[in-house]
Amino acid sequence: MTSGLKLPSPRVPDPRSAPVLRWGVIAPGGIARTFGRALRARTNQELRAVASRSLERAEAYRDEFGVEVAYGSYEELVADPHVDAVYVASPHSEHLAHAQLALEAGKPVLVEKAFTRNGAEARAVLETADRAGMFAMEAMWTRFLPHMDVVRQVLEQGLLGEVQVVAADHGQKLYPDGPQRLSDPALAGGALLDLCVYPISFASMVLGEFDSLHATGLLTDEGVDAQEAVTVQNAAGALGLLSASMVSSTPTTASISGTRARLEFSGAFYGQSTLTLLSPHDEVLDVLEPSDREHGLHHEIVEVAACVDARLLESPLMPWAETLRVMDAMDAVREQIGFRLPGE
């Protein structure tokens, strides 16, 4: 019987209860501004420093968010003794160099997703973190949202029965009129690292290790991926049906279907989504609405603070092995659709 099934409550701590870190921000672009807004509005964390190759850009960010100091080089920021942790918000092509720069200076890092361009670079960053004894985490902010804690509990408790199918899509019309970096192979552009990383990471969280992966896709005239469809399967035979596109807008929904029940995500599944638990006969068993419709980066920010305070090298919610699994899966997608990054 499924009629008595109910969704558990999220166990996410109050973001303002976390230990306070003084943050430095590398590369004050769009996602760094989202980071700054979330930190200022929803946490007690402090913005100590910001750095850009353009001092003028760094100073504009400093003035917008009340940062203490702006630097015209990344080396100056990581050398600042008052910076406790560094957020790497540069394009994917720069993550390796910027993360290693901070780690080698003795700074824990939160590196914007996708963690690096490929699995080899991800391993290089994590080897540096391990050697330096420094915390490092991929900024896959979705993993830290309250509704994803509910998903983890649902899976741990077996409320869906045996998981059979996971589906997720992420499409935004960002090409050809969106950010120029998405068109540029040298900046690791394309849909995969910006958009498909969400469905793949979601499937990895639910299914665990992929035993097989098959992908098809379309490349732009510049040679980056415009869209892809990916199927994965785990050792138990459960399937993942995943897709992403930067040339069209898609519903950005997700679902997890089991032998006992189905969990559906409405709204953007990777954001503050509504969860609906349904029986095999589509009877609505329970609904969980998000208590907060804001972007949600504050949850990953305070996860870093809690882990650093506990002297951990990795987050239990986004461990290094998980980041590597997702990066390796995206490497396999690019290999199958014929998209190689410069230097590979």
From TrEMBL:
<dbReference type="InterPro" id="IPR055170">
    <property type="entry name" value="GFO_IDH_MocA-like_dom"/>
</dbReference>
<keyword id="KW-0520">NAD</keyword>
<dbReference type="InterPro" id="IPR000683">
    <property type="entry name" value="Gfo/Idh/MocA-like_OxRdtase_N"/>
</dbReference>
<keyword id="KW-0560">Oxidoreductase</keyword>
<protein>
    <submittedName>
        <fullName>Gfo/Idh/MocA family oxidoreductase</fullName>
    </submittedName>
</protein>
<dbReference type="Pfam" id="PF22725">
    <property type="entry name" value="GFO_IDH_MocA_C3"/>
</dbReference>
<dbReference type="Pfam" id="PF01408">
    <property type="entry name" value="GFO_IDH_MocA"/>
</dbReference>
<dbReference type="InterPro" id="IPR036291">
    <property type="entry name" value="NAD(P)-bd_dom_sf"/>
</dbReference>
<feature type="domain" description="Gfo/Idh/MocA-like oxidoreductase N-terminal">
    <location>
        <begin position="21"/>
        <end position="135"/>
    </location>
</feature>
<dbReference type="InterPro" id="IPR050984">
    <property type="entry name" value="Gfo/Idh/MocA_domain"/>
</dbReference>
<feature type="domain" description="GFO/IDH/MocA-like oxidoreductase">
    <location>
        <begin position="151"/>
        <end position="264"/>
    </location>
</feature>
<comment type="similarity">
    <text>Belongs to the Gfo/Idh/MocA family.</text>
</comment>
